[in-house]
């Protein structure tokens, strides 16, 4: 049975978390006003970044976020350098931007410095982006077991080589390069100090630190004190990243660490308006968005329409992509399980529109339960690394040969 044949649906199961009476609802204030940020020729008046998320931060989602905070930095999901060099159509689709987007930020991922350099050359020659971020933070086993993502900064020579080559290609074109990395592989193999210094020396305009190790994956709470350490060590701006679920967290991170800006990942899933909240908070205002379910429903429909354009008119692909977003959009709202399941069965835009029309337009998320963790929260079972990876901080010739033979074409996060 399709969603359209089902009887009318009503909310019958509230998905409302318990109120925590110990939480103080008073907004937190910045202790010192934040300076606007400059990355090479790019101004970032509100130093907030949409952290790249594979499968999430394609242009339809970025456009929605950017509408709430027009002066931040909105980064596309990681593009595998080898796939871009091979002109893989899926990778090329991820490099697309909406006309209204600016600055256009792309993230490259790769292990082989020569391939990453070639990918950067394509970005520059074909005017694909205004800013390039480099991914050294991915914890996914299929990436780290090839020495990529968060495994890579352990090999300081390889890390420096990639950053140097990309900066060398991008800088003359006025395209700033930034690097994003984690604290390290685990507590015994911390890499962020060296990574930060190398990134700075090789010409990165800023760095982003996700304050977790690979072993921590997305579990527990990120250790913001690590961000403070890096801020104290570097002259270039540091974006703090990890567990910002609302504007107050963003302010708290800045107050606690002195970071020049914040990067938001899971906290904006289903809540693009968090960028408006952070913008207000950074400007000293207590104004916060509190959208009704009717307003969120309108965003869902708009998101579905933009995704249809992203998939060149393929509504089925669009609404399938939309599924995870709908689950996030509805989180905390009193919407029943049957309705949520019906969204998961949509096959076209009309199905989405019909379901949205049956939502209670006046419903709201209960106060003080909005800024809660969402998305992935699990720990890694085991960190997968190439054989002998931790034996030395430098790559041997054999190691490089082994690594560069088979970069994954599609390193899904
Ligand atoms: C679904 C998902 C996909 C991600 N994809 C990327 C990616 O493509 N590139 C990247 O550098 N980080 C990626 N990340 C990591 C986030 O950018 C961010 O660093 C991390 O989620 C921590 O921030 P948060 O606590 O605000 O979510 C991803 C995270 C998630 C949950």
State the main characteristics.
single chain, disordered N terminus, binds flavin mononucleotide, globular, TIM Barrel, eight-stranded parallel beta barrel, disordered C terminus, alpha/beta, two-stranded antiparallel ribbon, RNA binding, 413 residues
Give a summary of the structure in a few sentences:
It contains 15 helices and eleven strands. With 413 residues, it is of the alpha/beta class. It folds into two domains: 3-19 and 291-357, no CATH class; 37-288 and 384-404, Aldolase class I (TIM Barrel, Alpha-Beta Barrel).
Task: Please identify the structural class as seen in this structure.
Answer: alpha/beta
- Cofactors, ions, other ligands: flavin mononucleotide
Shape: globular
Unreliable spans are 1-19, 408-413
Strand count, sense and barrel status of the largest sheet are:
8 strands, parallel, barrel
Number of domains: 2
Give helix and strand order, one letter per element, not per position.
Answer: EEEHEHHEHEHHEEHEHEHEHHHHHH
Question: Ends: how far apart?
Answer: 33 Å
Mind telling me the CATH superfamily name of the largest domain? Aldolase class I
Can you count the beta strands? 11
| Helix content class | 25-40%
- Give Rg in angstroms: 21 Å
Task: Give the strand order, joined by hyphens, for the main sheet.
Answer: 3-4-5-6-7-9-10-11
- Provide the residue-averaged pLDDT: 91
Helical stretch count?
Answer: 15
């Amino acid at each position: 049975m399709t969603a359209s044949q089902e009887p009318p649906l009503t909310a019958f199961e509230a998905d409302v978390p318990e109120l925590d009476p110990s939480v103080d609802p008073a907004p937190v204030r910045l202790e010192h006003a934040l300076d606007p940020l400059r990355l090479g020729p790019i101004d970032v008046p509100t130093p907030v970044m949409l952290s790249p998320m594979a499968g999430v931060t394609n242009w339809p989602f970025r456009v929605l976020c950017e509408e709430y905070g027009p002066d931040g930095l909105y980064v596309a999901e990681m593009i595998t350098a080898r796939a871009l060099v091979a002109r893989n159509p899926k990778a090329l689709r991820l490099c697309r931007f909406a006309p209204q987007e600016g600055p256009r930020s792309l993230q490259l991922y790769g292990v082989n410095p020569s391939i990453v350099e070639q990918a950067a050359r394509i970005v520059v020659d074909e005017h694909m982006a205004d800013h390039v971020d480099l991914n050294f933070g991915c914890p996914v086993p299929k990436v780290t077991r090839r020495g990529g993502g968060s495994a890579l900064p352990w090999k300081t020579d390889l890390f420096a080589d990639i950053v140097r080559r990309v900066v060398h290609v991008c800088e003359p074109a006025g395209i700033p390069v930034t690097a994003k990395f984690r604290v390290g592989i685990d507590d015994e193999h911390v890499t962020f100090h060296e990574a930060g210094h190398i990134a700075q020396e090789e010409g990165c305009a800023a760095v982003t630190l996700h304050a977790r190790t690979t072993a921590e994956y997305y579990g527990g709470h990120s250790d913001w004190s690590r961000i403070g350490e890096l801020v104290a060590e570097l002259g270039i701006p540091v974006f703090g990243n990890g567990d910002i679920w609302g504007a107050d967290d963003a302010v708290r991170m800045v107050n606690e660490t002195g970071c020049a800006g914040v990067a938001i990942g899971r906290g904006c899933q289903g809540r693009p308006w968090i960028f408006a909240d952070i913008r207000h908070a950074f400007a000293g205002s207590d104004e916060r968005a509190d959208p009704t379910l009717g307003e969120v429903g309108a965003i869902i429909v708009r998101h579905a329409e933009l995704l249809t354009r992203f998939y060149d008119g393929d509504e089925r692909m669009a609404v399938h992509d939309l599924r995870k977003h709908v689950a996030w959009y509805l989180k905390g709202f009193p919407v029943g399980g049957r309705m949520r399941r019906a969204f998961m069965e949509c096959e076209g835009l009309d199905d989405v529109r019909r379901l949205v029309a049956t939502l209670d337009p006046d419903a709201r998320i209960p106060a003080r339960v909005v800024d809660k963790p969402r998305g992935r929260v699990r720990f890694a079972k085991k960190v997968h690394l190439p054989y002998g990876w931790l034996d030395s901080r430098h790559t041997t010739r054999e190691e490089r040969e082994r690594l560069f033979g088979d970069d994954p074409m599609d390193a899904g996060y």
